[in-house]
Amino acid sequence: MKPHEPISAGVSQDTPDSTPRAGLSVGRRTVLKTIAAGAVASLAAPYIRPASAAPTQLRALMWEGYLLPDVIAAFEEKHGVTFSPTFFDGNSEAYNKLRVGGTKDFDLVQADGFWPSLYFREKLIRTVDYAKIPATQHLFPVFKPAEFKLLTDATTGSDFGVPFCWGSYGTTYNADVVPAEKAASIELLFDPAYAGRLSTSARFEENIALAGILVATRMGTIDKPRPNGKPFNPYDLTDEELAGVEKLLIEQKPLLLTRYQDNATLAQLLESGAIVAAPEFAQTYRLLLAKKAKGEIDTTFAHTLVPKEGGLGWVDTWLVSSGVPDGATLDVCQSFIDTMITPETMKKVALASGCSTTIDIRALSTPEEQALYLMDRTGELSKMYMFDQPSSTEKWERVWSRMQAA
Amino acid sequence: MKGRWAGRALLGVPTVFLLALFVLPLLSMVVLSFWRTENYHIVQDWNLGNYITLATGGAYVTFLIRSLVMAGVVSLVCILIAWPVSYAIILYGGRYRLLLTLAFAVPFLTGEVLRVIALQGLLGPVGLINAVLMALGSAPLRFIMYTNVASAIGLVYLYLPIVVTVIYLSLLNFDARLIDAAKIFGASPLRAFVEVTWPLNLFGTLIGFVLCFIPCLSATLVPRFLGGANGTLYGMAMAQQFGESGTWALGAAMGVVLFLTSIIAVLLVGMRVDLRRTGFTGFGRG
Q1: Which residues in chain A have Cβ-Cβ distances shorter than 8 Å to B232?
Q2: What ipTM was assigned to the predicted interfaces of this complex?
Q3: Helix or strand or coil: residue A232?
Q4: Domains in chain B: how many in total?
Q5: Residues of A in contact with B224 (CB under 8 A)
């Protein structure tokens, strides 16, 4: 439409014999169309926004344990956005969600280990700008892009994630019952001496990977050249190793009281003495230590961070979905990440979730907290095998099902 | 004319509902079951691989047999408990009959997850039962801690209210004067029950059985939280395919097998019953 063009309905104003009524007449259909268009526009308006417009909602696919209501509320108020989290348990679950259109449903995503690089390869997440996330300057050196390569695209050098929390899948054990030298090995989890007093998580990937490290150690294949020419990775096992894992996990079944589904159950089982050892992310261990310090329990618990055969490790990260365009939404996403990794927030995250932080919060922590949250042990990360995608989920699923049915 | 349109609308809405929310998802599941997955990717490659895996894998047949046995046992236990309970409510409930029946539905006011987790707390090593036993100096009951028995208890707890309600409704519509008639003609109370009350309420009992059997067959939460290392049931294994392992096509094939198994189970139960003798009037008097 040209500027200042008069709006006429049906009859031109130039028509000599046009009456004023005709010039102003508006047909019933036109009215109905206008009303309908107006109604549709008003209904759709909240959902139709230019890409550059400031977002009103920030949608995150994240682990529930990292939700800090007070921090979120302050962020919402400051930026005028509503934070909408969706929670998941394992990486594969989040990956499945993203693959089936989740990049349009989420702005922020969490993942750990090698999963962010897989997401980036499959264009599920996008690059982020560390300059817009100033709190990254507080990262421990081992988690800065110069040393921590898992979140940097080797080709372009662009960063696609920000480290958040880290830990291992070590063994928490009752130190009054289990000697430290036994707890230093994965063999503890398969020791008949503790039959009925062991537990593992219900996560199939980590059960198979951890058993894979032990099987490869026993078979002597852990240090040998691999068929794929790469160093040993417990998430990429040969068929012989997988067969060994299946046998080992079947042998383990009668030794387990149960496979715990959540940390609360694990804490109860350990605290009551029903079980004496279980692999976990050290969150339960820290919870039990806190109870011991308050005098609520008498049992002494200890945690093996990395077993002597090698252990599994993880670094939880914040990622931005590929559905987020450059501009205001990306700025808010990066601002959110920045808020979440400030030392003050990270201290709260550590206390609430029981996780070690990638941000140096030693200045805010007591010597006991520094020891408890492994702040001087970040270097041990290099000895761990990072959480990864199984080389063949189909093969791993068969192993797990056969074990469950045995 | 108006009546015809009303009839069409009344039948049309549920038909569209069933087509959109039942038939279409089921068809998509059937289609997916003939494809395959490869490391979290769906490959549209028509094949029978998933069904061959289910038939020859051994593990999946084991899960199905475990679930059939579990569902059968749990449904029978529910019927055995629900009958005397419903009968007692009918006989002695008086004006509180409905209230007593509704009381059974109270657990439904909370979510299933909450009820299962509460039961885990009750049956577990530090649960109420074992805590009391240990406080009294007895050994804890290991058979209720993370075992198939614990799963069975959980399933009975979850589905008993449904069975009680169904049998109660069946008994409510039963003409009790027939028992009096049987007694007048010399039948003992037991014979009156076996030859009059039971057969005339068999259809309601079967509905209760099926409404318990079918969800038990696909139970996921109960075996996961209560079943322990040896308690994997078919529904739990199927849910695993759609969750962490991402082997959706195999999961879809498992779903199709479960659907067919459920239908066969219902038909097997239905075929052994003469519906007309049970007082079911849907087929007319014949």
Answers
A1: 404-405
A2: 0.84
A3: coil
A4: 1
A5: 202, 261
Looking at the predicted structure, is the pLDDT value of residue A24 above 50? no
User: Shortest CB distance from B60 goes to which of A196, A205, A401?
Assistant: A401
In a domain, A352, yes or no: yes
In a domain, residue A31? The reply is: no
Q: CATH code at A136?
A: 3.40.190.10
The pLDDT, as a whole number, for residue A164 is 95
Note down the domain range covering B145.
58-278
* Domain membership flag for residue A129: yes
Q: Is the dihedral of CA A229, A233, A235, A239 positive or negative?
A: positive
Report the residue from B59, B125, B250 with minimal CB separation from A404: B59
Residue with token string 């008949």 = A192
State how many domains chain A has: 1
Domain containing residue B274: CATH number: 1.10.3720.10
Give me B223's structure tokens. Answer: 């075996």
Containing structural domain, residue A65 = 57-166+315-378
10 Å CB burial of residue B266 (0-12, 13-18, 19+) is middle
Residue A85 counted as domain residue: yes
Q: Write out the two tokens for A81.
A: 């956005």
Is B268's Cβ below 8 Å from some Cβ in A?
Answer: no
| DSSP symbols for A199-245 | EEES-HHHHHHHHHHHHHHHHT-SSSPPTTSSPP-TTS--HHHHHHH
Q: Do B243 and A257 touch (CB under 8 A)?
A: no
Q: How does pLDDT run across B175-186, given as a tens digit for each residue?
A: 888 988 999 999
Q: pLDDT per residue over B55-95, tens digit each?
A: 998 899 999 999 999 999 999 999 999 999 999 998 888 88
Q: Is B3 part of a structural domain of the chain?
A: no
- Tell me the count of A-B CB pairs closer than 8 A: 100
Name every chain A residue with its beta carbon within 8 A of the beta carbon of B57. 398, 401-402
Q: Which residues of A touch B (CB under 8 A)?
A: 89-90, 92-93, 95-96, 99, 196, 202-205, 253-254, 256-259, 261, 265, 268-269, 271-272, 274, 389-390, 392-394, 396-398, 400-402, 404-406
